[in-house]
Amino acid sequence: MLDLPGRLFLAAMLLGTALIAWMSLVYFDFGTLPPFAIEKFPLRFEALWLVSLRVHVASALVTLPLCLLLMTRALQRRPAWHRWLGRSTGFVVLFGVVPTGIVLAFDAKGGALVTAGFLLSAAIVAWGIAHGVVTARRRDFVSHRRAMRHVVAQMSVAVTSRVLIVALDTVGVDPELAYVAALWGPVLASALVAELVSLRSRLAVLAFVPTVERTRREISPLALVRARAVVRPVARLGR
User: Poorest-confidence range of 44-53, 92-101, 215-224?
Assistant: First the structure.
């Protein structure tokens, strides 16, 4: 089971994903251009942009819930299921979400600064997937979990960024400035939170290992032999 912050994060992400899915239905009405797309026109590569938009939204809406599911202990306790679902999800993220996100980034609202933010987020996700695969094959699960936390954290930016845009618009922040802040804030904050959670988990493991080792020595037959070897000479000296 997840702890309380984990449950709240999971619930918020699932709710946010559901709302984004509902708002994105218009993207898949192939007979009508969505308002978001009309605002972008004219584009240099309109057909590529539209395909990228639809693939990006569809793949992200599928993979974000799957990434959240993969972070739960219930699935982590089933290695075969976790491995199969993780590989499938990672493939869609790496070859669906990331490249289409890069295409969309170059025409993002807010100019070069926002484009750079999207590219940074995409780079973190790509690194996380690649590093996660390598560390899983080495059975370095501590590093694997760290990489996957970064993937989930950056995927969650789709939700947190929209919430922040609404919040900044409510208080009257300039739309251009709000868009930049609503992107860079969640991207950097998500990376920081992922690192802090990974650091806490690593420290917990380091604190746990000496305890396990000490317990193992205490119950080890070799430890009992050593204890007897020490007690017997002392007993003879007492005679």
Answer: 215-224
Domains contained in the chain, number: 1
At 162, is the secondary structure helix, strand, or coil? helix
The predicted-structure confidence for 20-31, as pLDDT tens digits, reads as follows 888 888 888 777
Q: Is the distance from CB of 187 to CB of 157 less than 8 angstroms? A: yes
pLDDT tens, position by position, 51-96: 999 999 999 999 999 999 998 888 888 999 999 999 999 999 999 9
Are 181 and 173 spatial neighbours (Cβ–Cβ below 8 Å)?
yes
DSSP code of residue 220: -
The model's pTM is 0.79
Question: What is the residue whose two structure tokens read 């699935």?
Answer: 75
Number of H helices, E strands in the chain: 11, 0
Peptide bond preceding 42: is omega within 30 degrees of 0, i.e. cis?
yes
**Omega before residue 34 within 30° of 0, cis:** no
Q: Which residue range(s) make up the domain with 201?
A: 4-238
Cβ partners under 8 Å of residue 189, min gap 6: 160
